[in-house]
């Protein structure tokens, strides 16, 4: 009787742990998707500035770059092993995690350098494209194309 009770308790704990892990994986996917959506929301108007369809706004450019720096530091931890399902994340992220993490580090450092260098529209047009090239390079390798 004690063995059955112990076995049932152990099975219940394992099931609860597995369920909590599945919920945690779903939460981490939602969290990283929210941060990546912030990238897109911040980049859209700045992209308009690059194309000349939106007036240059230094404060908005600086805010976007600050967001890039902040989120680039947080995002690598939001890609734990096995958190690909339910997202556009490719398995290559986890088979080459060091490169993936290094790309976020480069994105953050490039954004910080651009933040210091951009003081006007001319320096914006010279420096900002290099920052957002990081996005495309990472998406090409690590994001499922829709």
Which structural class do the helices and strands define?
A: mainly alpha
* Average pLDDT taken over every residue: 88
What is the gyration radius calculated from CA atoms? 21 Å
Q: Summarize the helix and strand pattern as letters.
A: HHHHH
The largest β sheet comes out as:
none
Count of strand segments: 0
Shape: elongated
What does the model show?
The structure is a single chain. The protein has about 150 residues and is mainly α. About 80% of the residues lie in helices and about 0% in strands. It contains 5 helices and no strands. It has helices at about 1-50, 60-75, 90-95, 95-115, 120-140. Helix 1 packs antiparallel against helix 2 (about 60-75), helix 2 runs antiparallel to helix 4 and helix 4 (about 95-115) runs antiparallel to helix 5 (about 120-140). The protein is elongated. Mean pLDDT is about 90; it is low at about 15-25.
């Amino acid at each position: 009787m004690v063995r059955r009770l112990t076995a049932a308790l152990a099975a219940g704990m394992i099931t609860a742990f597995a369920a909590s892990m599945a919920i945690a994986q779903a939460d981490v996917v939602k969290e990283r998707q929210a941060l990546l959506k912030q990238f897109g929301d911040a980049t859209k108007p700045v992209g308009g500035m690059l194309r000349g369809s939106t007036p240059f706004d230094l404060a908005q450019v600086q805010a976007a770059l600050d967001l890039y720096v902040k989120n680039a530091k947080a995002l690598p931890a939001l890609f734990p092993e096995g958190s690909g399902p339910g997202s556009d994340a490719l398995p290559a992220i986890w088979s080459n995690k060091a490169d993936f993490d290094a790309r976020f580090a480069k994105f953050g450092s490039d954004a910080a350098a651009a933040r210091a260098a951009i003081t006007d529209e001319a320096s914006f047009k010279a420096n900002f494209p290099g920052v957002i090239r990081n996005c495309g390079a990472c998406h090409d390798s690590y994001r499922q194309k829709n």
